[in-house]
Specification:
Shape: elongated
Largest sheet: 6 strands, parallel
Structural class: alpha/beta
Radius of gyration: 28 Å
Low-confidence stretches: 1-37, 91-95
Order of helices and strands: HHHHHHEHEHEHEEHEHEHEHEEHEE
CATH topology of the largest domain: Rossmann fold
Helix content: 40-55%
Oligomer: single chain
Number of helices: 14
Number of domains: 3
CATH architecture of the largest domain: 3-Layer(aba) Sandwich
């Protein structure tokens, strides 16, 4: 017995009981379009629902402008076909992108995670999507990413730090795209800035230890520029209260827990009389605490430890870690609001926002 032929659109037709299926020629054209582009188009949805492309577009973008029945039919077709909108084509048609791009050095175990989460949430609430680019700590890599980003004309760009190559800064200024620099401070931002002073962070850590009577301190720090600024400020401030040389162990960025252990081990072997260590990242401080415990050192009696970042584990170390807290969530929210305001109005009330920082004193110092 010959099996009767079935129409491939029968599943869709069952959803739209009051809609006539498109003519065979139309269905062939629709299938050809999908075959050529690899995706379902607005034309396909229009043919399946029996309405115009304009109506389908309204149902997807301004659903309040179409009837409930039409909206239900379009949504059913979207679910059945797996349709996804072509955001690039949409932005070209309207000359407005809804994409914001953020460049950060690293994601895993990063102090930037709160900022990324806040950016994503705040931008989504305003109809924008966030795309993350991981630049590492290599300026040439950042330049290449910036070139790629500018060629795609996003609605806005979020950068980590304020030191970029002269060529990159010039291209960003001339692009006309709103830019927010974050996690640093400068008197000459490219466009807008939300950050804090790394120099003041290093000074605050030094003054904290000096106030506790420490006369011999050392530093374990990542090698990136912002961490180096904190280290130099720490050494300068501490030197005013002590004539003892301040040893510095520099770790390639991004640093890890093992780097903290090895860094402290080296310091203890070469500078046994040191009384405190300032770690340029909480993960380094955690490694230092583990090494100190392995050697049976009393914290903070024998050795005081300060971190940077107030990562989610800092309050749960043994003992709880004294560290510098940066409000990454606030940085993300402010960066998003500045971008949205700039895109919408062409100008912002404040171009530079200093969010400051806070030294969180716990039991390691």
């Amino acid at each position: 017995m010959t099996k009767p032929k079935t129409d491939s659109t029968a599943g869709i037709a069952g959803i739209f009981e009051d809609v006539a299926l498109p003519a065979a020629a139309d269905r062939t054209t629709s299938r050809r379009a999908r075959k050529n582009t690899g995706r379902v188009t607005l034309s396909d949805l229009a043919a399946l629902t029996g309405v115009t492309k304009v109506t389908v577009s309204r149902a997807l973008n301004t659903p309040e402008l179409v009837s409930v029945s039409t909206l239900e039919r379009v949504r059913a077709a979207v679910q059945q076909t797996g349709y996804t909108p072509d955001l690039v084509a949409g932005s070209l048609a309207s000359n407005r992108s809804r994409l914001i791009v953020a460049l950060i050095p690293a994601m895993a175990g990063s102090v930037f995670q709160e900022t990324v989460e806040a950016l994503t949430t705040e931008l989504a609430a305003n109809g924008y999507q966030l795309l993350i680019g991981q630049s590492g700590y290599d300026e040439s890599r950042e330049d290449a990413l910036i070139d790629a980003i500018l060629g795609r004309r996003p609605a806005g760009i979020v950068l980590t730090g304020v030191v970029h190559s002269r060529d990159a800064r010039q291209k960003l200024r001339e692009s006309g795209i709103p830019v927010v620099e974050t996690w640093d401070i400068t008197r000459e931002p490219i466009d807008m800035l939300v950050g804090f002073s790394h120099e003041k962070v290093g000074k605050a850590a030094a003054l904290h230890l000096l106030a506790q009577g420490v006369t011999r301190a050392a530093v374990i720090t990542p090698g990136d520029r912002r961490a180096q600024v904190r280290t130099q400020a720490f050494v300068k401030a501490f030197a005013k209260g002590s004539s003892i040389e301040i040893p510095v162990i520099t770790i390639p960025s991004p640093a890890n827990l093992g780097d903290g252990r090895r860094g402290l081990a080296r310091l203890l072997d070469e500078y046994a009389a040191m009384e405190a260590v300032f770690c340029g990242a909480d993960i380094l401080a955690l490694g230092a605490l583990i090494e100190a415990r392995a050697r049976g050192l009393d914290i903070p009696g024998r050795l005081r430890v300060i971190g940077y970042g107030d990562m989610n584990f800092a309050k749960d170390t043994d003992p709880p870690l004294t560290t510098i807290r940066i409000d990454g969530t606030r940085i993300g929210k402010l960066a998003a609001s500045l971008l949205v305001e700039r895109i919408r109005d062409g100008e912002v009330d404040r171009r530079v926002v200093d969010v400051g920082f806070k030294l969180i004193e716990r039991e390691t110092s």
